[in-house]
Each structure stands twice: as C-alpha cells, then as structure tokens.
Amino acid sequence: MVLRPGKEMVTRIFIIMLVVIVLFSGVSGYRLVNIMIVNGERFQSEASEQQLYDSLITAPRGEIYDKNMQVLARSTTAWTVYITPNGIHKIDDEKEKENVRKTIAENLSSILNVEYDKVYEQTGKHSYYVIVKKKIDKSVADKVREFLSDEKYEELQLVKYVGLDETTKRYYPNDSLASVVIGFVGADDQGLAGIESYYDNELTGVAGRVVAAKSAAGTDMPLTYEEVEAATKGNSLVLTLDSYIQYTAEKYLDAAIAENEIAERGAAIVMNVKTGAVLAMAVKGDFNPNDPFTLSDSEQKIVDTIENEDEKSKKLNELLNRQWRNKAVSDTYEPGSVFKIVTAAIAIEENLINENNTFYCNGHTTVAGQSYNCHKRQGHGTQTLAQSMSNSCNPAFITIGQQIGVSTFSKYFKAFGLTEKTGIDLPGEANSTYHREANMGPVELSSTSFGQTFNITPMQLITAAAACVNGGNLVKPHLVQKMINENGKVVKTTDIGYKRQVISESTSATLRKLMEFVAENGAKNALVAGYRVGAKTGTSQKVSKIQATGDHYLYVGSCVSVAPADDPEVAVLVLLDEPKGDKYYGGVISAPVNGKIMTDILPYLGYEPSYTESELKNLATSVPEMVGDTVENAKAKLSSANLQYQIQGKGEKIVRQLPEAGNRILSGGVVILYTEDTSDKTVTVPNLVDLTANEVNKTAANSGINIEFSGNTTSGGLKSYKQSIEAGTSVNAGTIVTVYFRDDTAVDG
Predict the structure, then answer these.
(1) End-to-end Cα separation, the chain, in angstroms
(2) Is the residue at 386 inside a domain?
(3) 196 and 228: one domain?
(4) Given 176, 179, 337, 720, the catalytic residue
C-alpha cells in the first residue's frame, strides 16, 4: 500500500521549500547587490585591468626653429621595448617557461645593451607590462622585431611576451650648436634646461591613449576591442637665433678660448640693438644635447683621476652643471672699462660734460683717502672726452663719476636695467649685485664709474650698451620670435616694445661718435674693413676670487662693438674669463673676436662695404675656376681678378690650379697653373710674424706663397703675431698661409 502525504504534510513541505527559495534568493540578491552596487566599481576596475590593455600615446614635442625655419630641435619616432611577465607565468610547462625567460633575457640584453640579470629578473615579475628600455631608434627596434620573428624561436611564441610601443625621442640635428640656449630634455621628454625648460608647457603636447582587449596571456587583441584617443602635438617655437650667425660666433669664440688658454669659459652675444632680438648666444665649452650627460674628454679625465666614489660623483655633477650653465645669463662679472659707455651716457644726458670738455690725468687720483692708479702710470696729460674713453683712463672717469653724484648715478643705473633681470626668456637668469644708494659713498661711486666693485650679467651689459646707441631706448632681449601650432598657424608673437627711454637721441648720437672714435684709436682690433664700427673694451680683475685664492692673475677681458656706427643695428659682446696665456687685456684677446664676427655677419645681413684705399690694398679676392680652360682664357680671368699667374708645363689646357677655385688670396697674389701632370714646385714658408702688412706682402711674394690676412691690417704700424703654417715648412708653390694681425698695445684699464 502506497502512503500518500496528507494535506498537512504537503503544506509543510511547500512552506519549507518556499523558505529555502526565499533564503536562497535573499542570499543571491545580497551577493548581487554587493557585487554590482556596493563593490561594483572595484570589480569593474579589476575586470578591465585583466581584460583591457591601456597605454599612453606620447605626444610629440613641438619643433624649435631658428629665424630662417632651420630645425634646431625636433621629435622623431622611437620605440619602447616591454615584456608581459604575467603571460609567461601562465605557461604550464616549467621547462618551457624557463626557456622563454632565458631566451628573452639573452637576446634583449644583447640587442638593447642591458644587463642579462636585470632582464631575466623582469621576466619573473607579476605584471602585465614591464619596460625593458625606452626610446630606442629604428635600427635597434628592427633588431628586436627580427629576434621575435626568428624561425628558431617560433615554437616559443615570443610575440606573446615581448612588444614594442611607439613613442618619440628628441633630436638635435646640429649637435652642440646653441646647446646652452636650446637646452635638452629628460627621459620623459620634460625640458631640463634652456628654451626646452623655459617653454616646456608650450612645447609639450597632450598625450593620447590606446585601450585594447588582451588575451589571458596579456597580449593585445585589437580586432576584439580597441579605442584610440589621438595625441596632440605641442606648439613649435621660431627663435630669433640665426644659425649662420650662431655658428660664426661659436667658431671664433672657440678659437679664442684655445688660443688664450681661457680657464673659465667664454661667452659671445649678438643682438639687434633696436628690437632686442638675440641673433646668437654662444658659450664654450658647452655640450651635445643629444648626449647631455657626457663630459668632454678633458673633463672626463678629471673625473677619472678621482678614486673616492663620493668625491667622483660630486665632481661629475659639478662639471655637468657647469657645461649646461649659460654663462651669458646665469653668471655675473665685473664689466670693467666697457661700462664707461654708461658713465659717459649719464654725464652727457645730465649736461655735466660734453665733447669739448678736457680731463687731466697725471697717472693717479685720490678720492676720500682712496688712491686709484691709471694703467698708464706716467699719466695721459690733458685729454678730451673722446680721448679719455679711447685711452680708457680711470682717473678721468672717476672725475666724471664724482660730478654725477651718488643719487643721479643710482637713478640711471636703475634706468639702464642694471638693478633687475632683463627678463630674457631663458631659465636661471642671475641677479646683479651692486652698491645701493644708501650704501654708496664717494669711494664706491669712484670704482663703479669705471666698472668695478659691482657684478652684472653679460646680457644686462649688452642691453645697456644697446640703449646707449639705439636712440636711448631700453629694449627687452628675447629669443622666441613666435609660436606656431602643428598646422603652422601663429599662436603667439613676441611684443617688441621698449621698456623705457633712458637717454635722449642727441646723447645717443654723441655716444655713437665716441665709440667710433674709440674703435679707430683704441679698440683697433674690433675694426672691420669696409664698415664703420664703434667699440669699447674692458679688463676687470676678479677681486673677490683674488682675495679668496691669492692668485692675482685673474682677469676677465671683454669688448662690446656696434655697427654700422652711424645707425647701429647689431651689437656684439665677447667675454673671455680667466685667460692663462701671455695676454689678458680685452682689447687684445676679445676685440679681435668681435672684429671677426662682425666681418662675417655684416655682409650676410646685407650691409655693403665701402673700402678705403688702404683697405683695398689688403682686400682678399676669390680665385676663379680655371681647370679645363685654355691657357689664354685662364690668363684673362686672372688678369680681370687682379691676380698674377705662373704656368707649369707646356700643355694647352689647365689641368690643375693652386690655390683651388673659391679660395681667397690678396689682390696681386699668384696662382700656379698646371697644364700637364708635372711634379709640384715646392717652396719654404718664411717667417711672417712680427711684420707689418706691407712687409708680409713682400716676403710672401718673394717666397712663392699666397697669404690671407686675418684681423685688423688697416691701422698703420700693426704687426702680425701668428701664421697658420709654421716657418720652415715645405709646401707647394701657391699655398695659402693665413697671417694674423692685432694691436698688442691696446690697453683698457
């Protein structure tokens, strides 16, 4: 007999089942609420992390151009090599897993020049994304791709564990050109120095993102899901720098540093006096921004000689910061006699002196018990204002300073911008140090009037000098002309307004005349054949360092020059810090650099020369191309170029010439023309040092060589001090020897 549950039992079972269902639903509901609502955001994030691959797309930095749109800095494509260790961990076979780790470590360490142990350790981390090396170039990236596609590793499926992300790398095509101005970037493309640092926000773009699905092994599955947010490139900068002028300034500055054994580097600034646009800013020694953490060989040797690791690290950092430091804006110095331009400007503007005033110098003067000597101990006697400036007479300018007085002098010192930063668009601009009006007495006024006992930056000095000759307006120096976006549209331009009128146009005109007189009679080494140039030189002692070290042979030689003197557009300041050679006066070591820079850039800027008769005699001319010409045609070409010739051989056509076409030799020089393959006629280079220009001409002509003059040869009596090929050397007839001239008597106390 089958027992059937009674109605009461059925009801009881139904109630039990209902309770179970309700309890189950409640627990499930609670768990769902907990998962979806209470902890939903956390679980969703964790799921996305496991299922999605999220990476940044590096935004290219904007380019940096010179004023003629030549690239100074640009971002190029580079790659980041990464591995996905979590994918490796999912390999079940331990032997295979170990093989994958070793294969990756061996190959990537070799290709990327990274330690094997470091890469091997990275393959064992618990992460979906580990960077092995950033910013590798295409050639290295291609080697990584070759490794991943190598047939002998096909079974290991290495593409699941190693990948390449595209990014950008900063590149400076001109290497060290203008490096202290441009600066460099760090590993994450952040600006660390120079323009790169000052305009970092403008140059930096907006990073993009790639969100893609990934497999259980951690590899990309873009066809399953991928979302791309494009990166936005940063703005580009067009500088006021001119690459040719920059190269010219660096070339001659570098040569002067080597020739005069400069211990504490040198600086040169070329600036438009009317707009404040900096056309060149050179500092040597500098660095290569493509490899900014590498020292020069000579400085690395200094570091290598240090045994103590802490001391070695300290010295390395010191030398790195020194090579990155922009001496033109971040270092101050006592300007010396160059500053006499400003002192004269104040006195003339205040109608205290004029060109007709005379000043007597007996070799020294005393102010408030303090004695001051003139560099000419026997004195200059009675001299005009122009002569006082050309003679760089300290007693005369002490007298002028005392006439000006503390209050007026302090007012103009501030008006010329010497109590504040210039505001140039570069990081690390230094503050000046000077005597405040409340602390300035007659002694401090005396030393300040001839450029000592206060410190300013080279940038402050050239800006003040510009105001002296441009009509009296203080300009704001600047390096960025305009900012453009990735479409080439101008986003911002630099406002070229004057800060203030410091002196009158008439005072400025007087100063231009005075500076031209100084160049012609004192700072002769700054003269440029065919052009009117104004100049003032200076030599200052580094008093504080002398007191600290006891070394009395510590000087800074400098020169500022302007051209054309009647209506200046360009100013050049050259500064050489601590010369260790046999010369240290600014008029001897710095002024020749000014002259060479001006000689090259004035024609480049479109100024036509106007030569005097004496200048024409020493003017070099370009040798024409005559190879392939008949002898008669070659003779005609040389005659029209006012050059002489010698024929070697009996052929009818020219097969070779010395000097070669394009070289420059003096008018009347000799060109050797070869009409057949004959042995070269050799001559011996004579001694061409300590001779006048006329004497050099005669000696060279008698010896069968050609010469090219460098430096000032127009002032009577100047003698040569160096030749490019040593006397006694055997050379081919017609070889060009450069002979260097300067005025070694130039003194600027």
Answers:
(1) 137
(2) yes
(3) yes
(4) 337
